[in-house]
Amino acid sequence: MKQDGFKSFSLNDGILRALEQLKYDRPTEVQEKVIPIVLTKKDVVVKSKTGSGKTAAFGIPLCQLCEWDENRPQALVLTPTRELAVQVKEDILNIGRFKRMKAIAIFGKQSFERQKIELKQKNHIVVGTPGRILDHIQKGTLVFDKIKYLVIDEADDMLNMGFIDQVEAIINELPRERVTMLFSATLPEDIEKLSKKYMSNHEAIEIQTSKTTVGKIEHVLLEVNEANKFNLLLDVTIVENPDSCIIFCGTQEEVDNLYRKLKKANYPCEKIHGGMKQEDRFSVMNDFRKGQFRYLIATNVAARGIDIADISHVINYDFPYEKESYVHRTGRTGRAGKNGKAITFLTPSDEKYLKETEQLLGYTIPRGTPPPHDEVIRAKDAFEKKRIKRPPLKNDKKDQVNEGIMKLYFNGGKKKKLRAVDFVGTLSKLPGVTADDIGIITIQENSTFVDILNGKGIHVLEKMKTTTIKGKQLKVYQAKE
Length: 481
Ligand code: ADP
Ligand code: MG
Hints:
The chain is of the alpha/beta class. 38% of the residues lie in helices and 17% in strands.
């Protein structure tokens, strides 16, 4: 199995090609276990560490199992936050691109009308947050009769008090004949029991991931009094001098406060929490993903699932009161084989929460000592140098897969009765073009977007200026994204 990597799963060639471009040479442990089981359409409950590759463990079989010809959504993926919905959608698009799998993200605080239009198009996989998904199901704007696969990512969070009613309402609407999959790094027993209600004959998979596939996280606790927290943070960041760091606070107000103070101290920082405008949340996450600033101050909204390359440090400025949340917050570092450091501030009143957290972890988090004054002084120079330097930009996974892809715009769509098959039919008959060169197709009322793969975009663009589709000559341009 190990030698031929993903080939042993008999996956679609397009999927294999995408995995190659993503540099997924070999399945991770969780993928090796889960993919073959899901391909046989069995329900699964999967517990596997943060950063162990759970998204592709469901993303790959979903892309394999969904049929391109079907116009109605076949798979639904539920996530707790909007940022995670967008990330999972991107991951699925990257895996399914060459099989032309269309995935969309649907979440609250975005125009319902726009989503309604998007949902009318051909979509294979819908990813979203429960509230808005339920809303679309109830209003009849998300057609769910063909949904055969349901994934609940961060399952324990989703089946917890905050979400359970909505998730249950969604499940009750979906077809009974379906495959249900639950994924998380933490799955308390009561939640696992509850989940059986939604499954038939499922397989429980728990991966005790070996150290080779998941990076190591070095954990340390620093005792501090509430009043000294900020000074300790300054000392710790100077000595650690992180390249990329998330600082978690307990509340939105705490995030705002700390952000103000760090800005004043000229830290290259931004913030994210649920009280901000959605556009701002997305733009901060995007900039952090690209590595445009080094410190992100966040509430738990950034604790689950978010996969950003090379976060070197996670600092719990406020102790995570909900015990699972320690695992998720610190799991933002040490991903995909990389190492990381998790530093947690512990005030005397936090001690009672620490016990529960350590019980869940199954080990005692080592206590460290605050950096001594002379060490801080010595480290200051290097810290200042890095502080004023622009961070090097991080690689984006998407760019690797997007290489050689050009998006074309055509000035005709549904109103002209054009369908995806019409575009595939015409384009694949052009000289030197095959169906494998055609990527994702998005048909709107008056326009259509088609991804052309393998560097053939210019060629197709030229040819289509004088080639008709269903007897119609359309205007064609390279699309601005
Ligand atoms: P989890 O959901 O388990 O926390 P993710 O699915 O977000 O983890 O994956 C963590 C990282 O590992 C991502 O950056 C992903 O691109 C990468 N990854 C996933 N599968 C593989 C693989 N087979 N080979 C290399 N990298 C992988
Ligand atoms: Mg995940």
